[in-house]
Amino acid sequence: MTTQSRKSPDAARRSEASRRAILTAAFELVGEVGYAKLSIEGIAARAGVGKQTIYRWWPSKGAVLFDAFLALTEGQDGREAALPDTGDLEADLKTVLRATADELNDPHYDEPMRALNTEILQDPALAAAYAEKLDGPMKELKKERLRSAQRAGELSDDLDLDLAVEMLWGPLRTRWLERGGPLTHAYADRIVETALNGLRHRA
Amino acid sequence: MTTQSRKSPDAARRSEASRRAILTAAFELVGEVGYAKLSIEGIAARAGVGKQTIYRWWPSKGAVLFDAFLALTEGQDGREAALPDTGDLEADLKTVLRATADELNDPHYDEPMRALNTEILQDPALAAAYAEKLDGPMKELKKERLRSAQRAGELSDDLDLDLAVEMLWGPLRTRWLERGGPLTHAYADRIVETALNGLRHRA
Amino acid sequence: MTTQSRKSPDAARRSEASRRAILTAAFELVGEVGYAKLSIEGIAARAGVGKQTIYRWWPSKGAVLFDAFLALTEGQDGREAALPDTGDLEADLKTVLRATADELNDPHYDEPMRALNTEILQDPALAAAYAEKLDGPMKELKKERLRSAQRAGELSDDLDLDLAVEMLWGPLRTRWLERGGPLTHAYADRIVETALNGLRHRA
Amino acid sequence: MTTQSRKSPDAARRSEASRRAILTAAFELVGEVGYAKLSIEGIAARAGVGKQTIYRWWPSKGAVLFDAFLALTEGQDGREAALPDTGDLEADLKTVLRATADELNDPHYDEPMRALNTEILQDPALAAAYAEKLDGPMKELKKERLRSAQRAGELSDDLDLDLAVEMLWGPLRTRWLERGGPLTHAYADRIVETALNGLRHRA
DNA sequence: ATCTAACCGAGACGGTACGTCGAGTCTTGAA
DNA sequence: TTCAAGACTCGACGTACCGTCTCGGTTAGAT
């Protein structure tokens, strides 16, 4: 977020130490006590920081959480990652979806991620920021892999790539959100097969 | 919900008028002030009811909201509805998905539904109740239509129907949750076509 | 004070235990930490009471303090006290003024009384309440003794009794407020003599 | 005040413009918002000055206010004033007390003066400074007039002049502090008469 | 004529307390 | 026993100021 507050504090004088302490505290706390019991007051206390320092730089609890996630991904930065591309689309997609399933199963990420999704649900501004800063880059990688498959003739040229990505990763995400069942590798594989081949019966 | 409280109040003496007033007030309020500002106190005041009457019969804010939704669907009850089945699966699915899109676009349902989803995200018990009482019956109707298509040879016999339903309705729901774009009829149609035919290019 | 709050809480349901705990805590705290550092939060914590319970019944810190004093004097109630009247006005007044000086010298009363005066200085409503409930009864006793002296021919009939009281007790009070010097019995005696005889030289 | 701070700032480099701006701002603000809502931040903002500049030169809010009053009286300085001395003590005292009453009635001085008195009540150091710098010189003038009356045989030689001053000006000041009634010329006159003649009845 | 140490405006910082809201519990009196 | 009403303790909210602490930028006075 790092949205400009109405009084426009002087970002040049901002304390980097406090910023980091706040993001770390927020991320840890949401994992420990859950999102519902996460409070600005608690974050400030854990971070050893005045509440005002949080209110000065973030408009809401959700914005802090969002920046905490951003800070995490920034740690992985500079790598300009790409999805695996062995030439076998189906195999590659299975590899990636299995990894996604594993990540979602990691209890370390479950509660914070769930918390972030809760906020996104309620806050359009946060949803937009999420789409742009966190989900966007990853989605671009996915689409790039699909584009590569289009060039290789595996996927049709007029495919809606956004929709394709949604159809591949959506079921996993939905099952996670709604706790609709276990996120197994077998499930990941079945999604890939079903999406690629379509629902329709073929003779 | 109507979960049993630990003191197990005597349901026989329960005031039906208060129950209805509470559910109505909850549904209206969540639409007016949003989920974040919805409070038990506010519901009680609007319903002209003591707070204790709410705490006596419901374990949480989310449970009240959930029952409010249940009450809505019960109003439509007794009809044993089914999805349209003209013999043309693709056309039927488009019809239904367009209707779903329209419903999600209805501002009257947007905020309450979003609120319910927020709670479900955080509360596994509520998620289970939602899956069983609200989403379940509708999902069964969808799967029934697909089963009919299997019988007609339009869909393969070994298709995972749950996954199929997710693949058809998931994108619409995800786009709505994340406010990822307009929910148009054209989008609904494209989902159906893509899901049925699969992503893979065919010669 | 016990001023009516705007929401007019139901005094019948008021917790007497909380009320007493609050007044006691306020009185003790002001003696321990001084008026400047006296806080509603501190009073609530010491009294084992929610802040809201204070805000519900009192409009300000000063009003609590005032009621704390009222409660003290009510403890001495039922006695219908009167000032000593031996027939010798000068001796009686010296007795009473010496007692007043002793009281002001008592460190137990100094800080709370000073605190109350601070509030009175700033708050006209509180000043009026003080004049009526705390200072008034005592002043009436003083005037009654002077009236008795008028009847005995010791004081002239057209004397302004309010002014007389002020002239007798004022110097003591002012010296105390301004810390203008020690409040000795000798000083008390000199006040009485000077006030009774007047400043003017007599042949 | 101008009390030495522990870091002993270099008074030679002190900005006179800032000092004046601070004192002016403090005096104006206390008149506008009242003493309770007077804040160092507010003064600094109004004066266009950094907070540190206030903390560097004054130890407390009260000290600033005190200096603001000092600055006012310094404006009237260099004249070596004296109270009127026509030879008629009673008339002269009535003149001066009427003037005092008028001053206390001036709303322009009421709030600031009340604020200063509030601080004096709580802060012994400030009380001493007040007694020495502000009240002292004026009291000396009053005592000088009384001494002149002693020489003229109007007042007895063994009169306690401090007590006499207190007895004359005290009632006015007390009535003002406690808002005990209107400060009229008639009241001023009655004080003088009562104090001079004493309370005692004379045949 | 520069150097340099202080003051200066500005304002971020860790804190304390404010006065308010709502949570969930408890008590009272009427039905 | 349920209900409306609402007082209670408690915890968090978001704000206002506290007094301390840099940060650059002036602005002397001593070199």
UniProtKB/TrEMBL annotation, chains A, B, C, D:
Residues 16-76 form the HTH tetR-type domain. This is TetR/AcrR family transcriptional regulator. The keyword Ribosomal protein does not apply. InterPro entries: Homeodomain-like_sf, HTH-type_TetR-like_transc_reg, HTH_TetR, Tet_transcr_reg_TetR-rel_C_sf, TetR_C. It comes from Actinocorallia aurantiaca. Residues 39-58 bind DNA. It comes from the Bacteria. Keywords: DNA-binding, Transcription, Transcription regulation.
